[in-house]
Design a protein that fits this description.
With about 180 residues, this protein is an all-alpha fold. The protein is built from seven helices and no strands. Residues about 130-135, about 135-155 and about 155-175 have low confidence and may be disordered.
Length: about 180
Amino acid sequence: MKSRKDEVTQRYLLLFKLDAFNLLQRIKTRRKEFVDIFAMRRTREHFAWVFASRYDRATIKDLAHCSGETIAALDQYYGLADEMKWYLFQTEDMPNTVEETIFRLTKRLEKLHSTLVLYLDAELSLDEAAGDSVDEALEEGGAFDLKEAEDGGLFSAEGEATAFPEDEEDDGQNHA
């Protein structure tokens, strides 16, 4: 049987993996659309939604569940996503140049995502090898409600402690 700490770590790793995947998919599938909106309306408001991620709200305590290598991979991946967002909010480039730049940065982001997934999968596999599978560990802890975790637990906007008892004390620091 896995300890509660292992179960929590599995959840964090899985949430980071899902968040990174969802961010990349939003950027890739909506790239033409968000560049077109920028070109036609010269507005930047929609970029905040495209680049939204749970990682932005993750605290140092949340990241402490990951290995050093995974933290470095997360930092590289989300650092490039933040660079893309900053570019889009600050650029005065013409729409064609914006589209080319975002295409190029997206290709780099895909490579960083592949590296990140390797680290996350390795950590998830190591934990599986030490005991139960990820699915079994999540079942042992009961149903895991992602919405509940976002609203009052994992990755809370206020930087509060996670919704798990062993994480009661929180330093309130954010990774950014």
